[in-house]
Amino acid sequence: MDPFPSLPSLGPSAPRFLGLDVGGTKIAAGVVDADGHIVEQMPSVPCPAADQEAMLKAAVLLIQALRSRHPDVAGVGVGVAGLVDWPEGRIRTAPNSAFRDAPLRRLLRDATGLPTVVDNDANTACWAEYRLGHSASYMAFVTVGTGVGGGLVLDDRLFRGSSGVGTEIGHMIVDPHGTERCGCGTVGCLEPLASGPALARYAALAEAGRPTGGPGARTAGRRRVTGEDVTAAAQAGDPAARAQLARVGHWLGIGIATLVNLFDVELIVLGGGVAGAGEPLLTPVRESFEEYVTARAHRTLPDLRLTRCGPEAGWVGAALLARDGFSAQPREVVRTSVT
After folding, report:
1. How far is CA 41 from each of CA 6, 200, 234, 311, rounded to the nearest angstrom?
2. Tally of CA atoms within 13 A in the half-sphere of 3 that contains its CB
3. Which range in 144-148, 205-209, 330-334 is most confidently predicted, on average pLDDT?
4. Which run of H or E residues covers position 85?
5. Which one of 57, 135, 267, 304 has the fewest CB atoms closer than 10 angstroms to its CB?
6. What are residue 73's phi and psi, to 5 degrees?
7. 303-306 and 267-271 strand pairing
8. Residue ranges of the alpha helices (H) in the chain?
9. Stated pTM of the model
């Protein structure tokens, strides 16, 4: 059964749209119809993150394979981890791949002949949640996995900032006097305090002080404890694992409070692998958020919910961006000086 509700129909002869979610190690892809239903989802394929040309070739081959089975595809949407200029679709830099100053939108459009949009992967996932999962004109999507990312919908439009590289939620400064340095080089970012690797680090530190028991005991001597280990143990009721999730939830709550203080959203949606822990994470997030949000007693607090679109959100949202922009494709950016 298709997990997504329908969009307003474009009519019986409406085309289909293709979406890609390009990560650091793999590409997920599929096709949706004009009503937002998944027509085909391909298994994720590995991609050589260290080679920009090879990554581009892998993406083109996926598009061609899907298009051969769906000749009515009318547009391509791509979500990419990294700083992406909008609407130009140029990747300024990407933390886990070789893309540097890469005009990906133009390259894919020229290679396939199809209208193409390229955006940050957290933005595309946010768009899927907004269009298919939740009804809120002002919402924030926070994804918690290997990193912390997110997107904002304000007045029913994706908010990207002046050039498309806004809403880097994982790089909000929440602990400037801390000791954990982010992958971006800064001390104090939310990401190294509230991501999957942070959860694993907290658990490893706890294990080092407690030789028996805990979420990593069953894997002792074989491999290092992972965020997935801690999440599974927390869901099984392990108190030590729940304590580490609570630590992640504390920092997430602070970050979410900042988002609400700035943008007054009505809904917060949590996605990503760590969010799969469910209530063992949601409860401490809510508690921390309510502690740090401004004027708690004098405002209506936003709902905090888990993702409805799941791991498909990135590529499905990218396809929906292509659908929603089909009648008015993004123009090439022409920059002029202001005197």
Report:
1. 17, 31, 31, 12
2. 13
3. 144-148
4. strand 83-85
5. 135
6. -60, 130
7. parallel
8. 52-69, 104-112, 121-128, 191-194, 196-208, 227-235, 239-263, 279-292, 313-324
9. 0.86
